[in-house]
Fold Alpha/beta hydrolase.
Amino acid sequence: MSRQQRAKIDAMVRRPRPEGGEAEAPASVEELRAGFRVLMAEMLVPAGLTTRATTLGDRPALLVEPPGTPRTGTILYFHGGAFVVGSPETAMSLTGNLVTRTGVRSYSLDYRLAPEHPFPAAIDDCLSAYRALLDSGEDPTTIVFAGDSAGGGLAVTTCLAARDADLPLPAAIVTFSAGLDATRTGESMETKADVDPYFTREALEYTGAMYRAGQDPHHPLLSPAVSADLTGLPPLLLQAGTYEVLLDDSTRLATRARDAGVDVILDITADVPHVFQSFAGVLDEADEALDRAAFFIGQRIRGGGGVTRTSEG
């Protein structure tokens, strides 16, 4: 990345903002949600997209379509936000860029959030959305699960839930800085603590406790990076940056998935923060990572193509 890009991104992500667990009085859920909306509204969204509010399963969803005729396939996207904040709208920089680059439509799901709806409500909603796609006649070989942060975790755990429900599995899973370990036992929780601009252990425990609601953090659907049987998962692309305490969530899942016989690509970018792909159009590494994700999706969706570059990318 250029020095100018790096300085701009670093200044943006290190601005003071509500962050549960870092202040004397942790931010309220309402403050966290408002702050996240403000942060994500600054991200660039590609032009020319068509969006439409719809429903998928029992939940609202945002259908995002590329300019022109979409290619074969569907990206079922799960937004980030520590299971407590976020929405399809806050994830538009990510879904929009994936849709633009692949030419494939996306359904971005508005799953229920904690603390009002703790574990496993989000997974139930995501699985219900996948069932709805299958029931509508969608071919699972043309569906890819994707998500960032907590949503990346949901992409994995929803697939595990689908497998255990004897549903046909999607063609692939793509994650950006996935949250995959509620036990917080990865070495990066300590080794990256001084460089992560977003998270502290205390902040993650604050929101994590809302989602777990007293459940054992070792539950396979809370900590798939350390506890789940990953046998039978579809091909995985796990992207992360070296400036994040959640880095080892992805590295450990990749190791365990490989040992379980799963095709996996671990894609680590140096000196970038959590979900750096959100900075597409501002940060070269974000655009390059999204291009790699789009190429992977195009390879895995039957009848799909490769990457489509645009002026925004």
About this structure: Residues 18-24, 303-313 have pLDDT under 50 and may be disordered. Strands lie at 50-56, 59-65, 74-78, 105-109, 143-148, 172-176, 236-243, 264-273.
